[in-house]
Amino acid sequence: MPSAVPNRSSEAAPLAQRLLVLGPFLSLGLVLVVLWSLVGWFSLIYPRSLIQDVQSELQSTADNAAGETDALLREAEGNLRTMDLLLLTRRTKEEGRDATVSLLADTLREGSRGVTDFMLAHTDGRLWRIPSGSTPLVELGPDSFLQELKDVRAQTVVVGGPLRLRPGARLVLPLSTRLSGDRGQFQAAVALIDLDMVLKLYRARLQRPGQAIFLEREDGLALARVPEVPELLGRNVVQDRPDRKLPASAPPGGRFEIGEASLDGKDRVVAYQTLRSFPLRIFVSLEEDRVLGGYLVQRRAVLGFSLLVSLTAIGLMLWFTRVQSRARLAEAERQATADASPMGLFRATLDGRTVYANETYLQLMELDRAHLAWGWLERLPVQEREPARQDWMKRVAEGQAMDRLRHFRRSDGTEMVLAVRTRPMRVHGRIVAYAGTVLDVTEPARQQEATRMLSAIIDSSPDYIVQTSPQGHIVYLNPAVRRRLGMDRDTPPKDLHQRQFFVDGGERFEREILPAVMRDGHWHGRWAVRMRSGGELPVDCTLILHRDEKATVRNFSWMLRDITDELAVERERERSQAVMSALAHSSAVEVLAVDTEQRVIFCNRTMEQNLGLAPRAWEGWTAEQLLGEQRYALARLQIERALKGETSVEEWRDEAAQDRGAPRYIEWSYGPLLGETGQPIGAYGVGRDVTDTKEEQIRLLKASNTDPLTELLNRAGFASHIDTALERARDRGELVALLYLDLDRFKPVNDQYGHPVGDALLKAVAGRLRHALRPQDLVARLGGDEFAVFLHHVAKVEDAQVVADKLVHALSMPFRIGALELHIGTSVGYCVQWARQADINALVTQADAQLYRAKRAGRGQACGSVCASDVTPAA
């Protein structure tokens, strides 16, 4: 039996083909990468090495020039210090003519080989040459380099800018220092170095054309340059070019590249060195074009050659790509044509191994490329594989073609039928392989089966199915219609026209039905058809238009269902709904119904009137829109429970009714509206006005909690209200106080003047208590001549004593009852405590004990107690 192992040679073929296509490009690309890598090195790295070599050479020159300049300046500095020392020891009045000083000056001039001259100067710019006359040799003015000596200490040497002592004289570089002592008109010693001699030293150091040596003070003042640049000396180049200034952290020596447009307009490679003894720098530079001149010529030659090679290689690559593209396009067209074919195409070897297949074949066989070789055999049941292989080998041996229907089972378990056809491929008369096609014929077979099943359904349907031509002739009647018309099964419907069955002569068909079906392709609605007996049959009608591929009308299909019984049921339902609606609208209770989305589907007239709505103004509203925000907030939970299948009864106060008078109390009963399946399809609510009953209950409750004589709270009402007040005070963290009052001398008055006077006196006491207390305070008559007061929101402990004293004072004033003026009083006992710690029984006990204490202390007293642990609120 053939193995199912994938063919490795078939897997390696695409890889080899890709390598064959990409190989020339990869090789040529590698050569170009190597070539341009060398060009990049030659263009980027090699010039840097050239510059670094030149910078090393320039650095050596800068070091040597700096050493020579430093030695020359230090020699001049030493001579200045010698002259300063001599002048310090001489005490003559005219140092400028002193023979010893003049001899020293001449000796120093000769020792410098004529490079340096020495003078005495005043800081205002006057210079005297030694030996000096009475008048200065030169007057430089107040802005000369000597002004810099004013801000430095004695013996500090200052290097000034280049200057000419007289027009046409040679440039000199001045070094000056302040004299150590006051020498009259002489305040400084000056050494003037011949700048031409300095430049001569620098020229000897120039080794290449384009090389320059530049002496600069650290603040940017140009002192000397070889070769010379017009108008450069004495100019501050840092002010012209701030980018030239070296940072304070720069090392004494270094190298860099700079564009010297402010000097001679040429980019230069630079090395510099700072003098060890003076704030001066020597810059040695070389024109960058001189450094890279020969290299640039070589680089242009290399770039030109490399560009030529690259363009030639790219041209060859493009030509080769175009040739390959044509070949690939031809192959792709062949492959696309094969893949686009609705038939599966394949090629197999003589032993049955598949070596090529298009995408349609793979989709039909549900195979991937890895299992292409023997996939067709593995798709067969195990017991059919060997017979199928033997049949293949037999036909190959005989050179026969094959036309066969094969049944396969798809991966989803469904069955498919494939038509397989093969033909031998002959080369020089010899069979070398087989080519074939695979076509899925499952759907045509199913369609034939579906057509047979649909015909059977139509034939057995109890509905009336009719087909008519575009002209209205009846061309088909299903058995149900034939039975209704009394026609045999095989009798052709000739001479029958659709007009024979129209009850109105076809008016509705022409006006409404035909335009709709021509526009939409179908029409559905209720209609009535005429029977042969002369009566009318109500039907539910569906009319379908059929067109051919050219959109021409071929025929119409009529599906008619007898709805005589349905109409009878609907009429009965309408009568029932009318009766129920009349009962609901005439009822005095409010009736509401909503669907599962809480949209109102019914609201009776009583509810419309109570809500101030016009009849059916609620259509399209939700329950929230109908009831309003306030009423819906009360009813929402009941409605939601009813939609879940629960019933509930709740009573709530309709505050919104105050706009039309006193508020109303409504008892609402909610339950589910159940559908035919027993599941809720909505909810209903019935609201009954129980305002009269509720008000009677409130009146009876108030009577049970109120003292009928004084209209104060009685003992039961006080106990009920004090619990609520104490809970509210606990939430707010307040101090509370309970006061017990007992009237003094009330019993003698009652015994002497009788109960009518006693009752009137108790009413007057109640009035004074109300007047003395706040509206929110609770006051009650506990019985007889005993009263109680509960204070909440007490600001501080002492306020309870203030209120108690106020009540004692109020009741100690005389009472006028008719013609009588009666004098009584009261004793008060009270207890103060934080509400969060308070217990009502403990408050009563302590207040009663304090009342007893007040009675013992003498009537008309107020006594109270506060526990020491209760004066601060609990955390």
From TrEMBL:
It comes from the Bacteria. SMART domains: GGDEF (SM00267), PAC (SM00086), PAS (SM00091). SUPFAM superfamilies: Nucleotide cyclase (SSF55073), PYP-like sensor domain (PAS domain) (SSF55785). CDD domains: GGDEF (cd01949), PAS (cd00130), PDC1_HK_sensor (cd18773), PDC2_DGC_like (cd12915). InterPro entries: Biofilm_reg_signaling, GGDEF_dom, Nucleotide_cyclase, PAC, PAS, PAS-assoc_C, PAS-like_dom_sf, PAS_4. NCBIfam families: GGDEF, sensory_box. This is Uncharacterized protein. It comes from Roseateles depolymerans.
